[in-house]
């Protein structure tokens, strides 16, 4: 078995050199490669050059890995026919790529160089493989295919988790222009998304394809080209023959095309797929038949699960061998020319690899995390301070501004959020609000009531029921210049799609060195304490899976006025710094009016004046006691109730620190508040073990040398049951009182 498939191509050309010389008839570069084909001899030769570069890069990556100088060996060998796709697409067609896309990128880069865009794709790729900080894409953070100038956002996806955001980008192409936002690509651009046959079975792939078909069925332009590079195997598990065709070939609202065989046949089928997608603005599924050479990656021993006969059969189908024969037999190139091309390509890549292997790596923590959580406070405050023309705003609100509402002046958290969303949409024409039931109904809790009527169907969208698609749409829309505000109906539901936040949205800036962003403010109806309704899925109290995501901001207000100011800050932060933010809105406080007694109206608040804003790190303090209660959301209201009981019945005074921001936690503000407290009690409504923030707060204070009493109150480690039983496992005001008496008296 040959482990150097460039050598195999060279050996085949030696044979062709002897047999083809007498019959050779040269084609001009502009001649069709074969009669009737739109692929010219010159075009085919350029594609072959791109394929040779990709193959030589794969060989060099393994050579350097053997000496400990490179760190990535998942190759594109056998998938090189995707260079045809890279030649037919434009560099203004956003492309979300599979990891076996080396030849595609060489073809894409060649187009860029012809247009005076980009650098040396070979050297840049070798820098990435060697994890050098000189890599122009990820700066050594990961081996990715990507380019800002060539419109290839880098993907770390290995299981098609990038399909939903590619669908979102396709949806946003036309939507952005209708909203008056320039997506920075031509109006007839299409979106390309490539993936493997094994990944096509993954839920994220199926939901992305379903979302594209659904949107197309509803009449939305959906110019997305799904490209399944079908090599028939996923690591060691074979894909059944005809599985991709049988699964995707007959879907309505999805045009299906197959590309198989020689280069000119693949060219014709791929061109049909691209042209159909571009002209009809509809989803197209292209099955590109490939083979996988060498095994899944460098550590994969293929003979452990494949016979030698199977491997030999696969190697005989090497696309470079077939393309070399085609070029010689058609007259597009002589064997001597191709042999020279093979040799010069190997030398070029070898030289680039040796240079790249000497370049520096990331060497400090600061360098590594720099693009993870950008935050320009001055820019954020300046953006938040921009006000809508007062006359225009008054006209929008029919003469009565929210801060001037007559009856009552003070309003609930839900009412304030509704007004704040309207103000932000009035201020920011790029805001796109969407989710299940947010439009016509106005949301399950009516927070978005009236927005669709005021701003129209273009900007306020009812989506189908799928959180993965909703967050995918948010990513694609953010990439195309919009400011998405998706809604997830309940906190429990975001866990259905958390990888769209963890693996995709929050990693983009990190793996592109800040060259790409997908800003969004994800509104999530959150937490527990709903009365008369609930159970686990509607009373979820766990945020551990969100706090674990690097760079993700978690904001959770407790009062209506805070909610307005925090939402303004989040919108400005997303817009100026490209941040991904989850805005956790406490369901039980949406329509709460009272604090201590029925009818006291103490949980209502005035609408903050335009320009008032809260940013991460800015906390709330209530009261002036020596006991500090650290909490958030529902915990703030319960702690205030408990504090009154402690003072009136036990003579203990407490003050309450409303954290507001749960990721990153506001450590400096916490330290200041705790400095003169004789005891600290953390009230965490999340589950006791890893569900909330109590562990982190207690550990931080202990490690910082806080030497006075520390305690916490947390919910029980269980799913939340239905009805009154929920009160037995959730934190109650009486629990807070008892904890203070037990630990601090």
Keywords:
19 strands, alpha/beta, elongated, 745 residues, Rossmann fold, 28 helices, seven-stranded mixed β-sheet, five-stranded parallel β-sheet
Any chance you could write out the topology, listing elements then pairs?
Layout: H1 5-20, H2 41-66, H3 82-88, E1 95-96, H4 102-114, H5 121-129, H6 163-178, E2 191-196, H7 203-217, E3 224-230, E4 233-234, E5 237-238, H8 243-248, E6 255-259, H9 263-280, E7 284-289, H10 308-316, H11 319-330, H12 335-356, H13 365-369, H14 377-385, H15 390-396, H16 413-427, E8 431-435, H17 451-455, E9 460-462, H18 467-479, E10 483-488, H19 491-494, H20 498-504, H21 508-511, E11 520-526, H22 544-547, E12 553-555, H23 560-577, E13 580-586, E14 620-622, E15 627-631, H24 634-650, E16 654-658, E17 661-663, H25 667-675, E18 679-687, H26 694-703, E19 710-715, H27 726-729, H28 733-744
Parallel strand pairs: 1-2, 2-3, 3-7, 6-7, 8-9, 8-10, 10-11, 11-13, 12-13, 15-16, 15-18, 18-19
Antiparallel strand pairs: 4-5, 12-17, 14-16
Short description:
This protein has 745 residues and is α/β, with parallel strands linked by helices. It is built from 28 helices and 19 strands. Strand 4 and strand 5 form a beta hairpin.
Rounded to an integer in angstroms, the radius of gyration calculated over CA atoms is: 30 Å
Total tally of structural domains: 3
Which structural class is indicated by helix and strand composition? alpha/beta
Q: What is the number of E strands? A: 19
Under CATH, the homologous superfamily of the largest domain reads: Thiamin diphosphate (ThDP)-binding fold, Pyr/PP domains
Give the strand content.
5-15%
- Whole-Å distance between the termini? 78 Å
Helix content: 40-55%
CATH class of the largest domain: Alpha Beta
CATH topology of the largest domain: Rossmann fold
Mean pLDDT: 94
Low-confidence stretches: none
CATH architectural category of the largest domain: 3-Layer(aba) Sandwich
By DSSP (H or I, 4+ residues per run), the number of helices equals: 28
The major β-sheet equals: 7 strands, mixed
